[in-house]
Amino acid sequence: MRIEYFTFLFLILSFNSLSQKKTFKEYNQKIGGIDFNLKMVPVNGGEFSMGNPEFNSHELSDNGPVHQVYIDSFWIGKYEITWDIYHLFMSREIDVMQIQMDIENEINKNVDAVSSATTPYVEMSFGMGTDGYPAISMTQYAASKFCEWLSAMTGNYYRLPTEAEWEFACRSGSGGSYSFGEVEKLNDYAWYIKNSDGKYQKVGSKKPNSLGIHDMHGNVAEWTLDEYNPEGYYLKNDSIIKNPIKFAKKLYPRVVRGGSFMDDADKLKSYSRLASNKKWKKQDPQIPRSLWWHTDAQFLGFRIVRPYITPSRFEQDKYWLK
Fold it and tell me: I need a surface site. Which of 25, 121, 219, 287 has the fewest CB within 10 A?
């Protein structure tokens, strides 16, 4: 019994050690050996000022005061998740091409154990385009299940970004309202109400930020992991917070970032926040309402992250919003 215990402990330690020896550079994550242009950009960890530097406590605003945050290194999707990739998760035909279990994988999970999104009752692109266009209208739960599925398929651990990770990657070192500088440049970097023609556009068709990440301002708004708290930035002390996250204890509201093709410039700022709303299911005819779709949130999508330091097996499920 003692020998079996130490053998198990050795395997766990070996797994953790192997999983942290990674080359930290941009890569293209294939699924089932097929290239779907799922590119991941490295974001070196560090400290940054989170929130609105012009925050006024006398105004009704949820984006301040500014506070100092430290974020560990991670990769983030170069693009928002597109329909051609999301459809793989919906159809599950590619599941037979799951990567083999291996001690060097960050995660070993049977893909059959991951729930799949139900078929929506309407065509969810609403005629705006599919291949190369951002997937939309999924719930946070659905986006998180996609991450779990992708992890099982590839052996790399993926999840939604925390709100702090999202802002850190969006800012890419900038302390202003936009990662690229002044609002006059917005048309070069973002799809929003003034240039989108009332619909989302192909991912990556505007300029990226300095890290090479596209569409963090506009196109579609993006899910994060955090529960929304309008006073979440009011801290009890001035210490630097490391890797903050507010795990959700209720279904609504949760944090969405980045603004969309339907929004004006102000909603696209690096620190702008949006709270999810049960009205996003208003037209859903199912009783009970779908776990998978926000039919009335045609502005809403997501992108994924992969932490450089893989969470322990005991922590991994926690970030998939079980």
Answer: 287
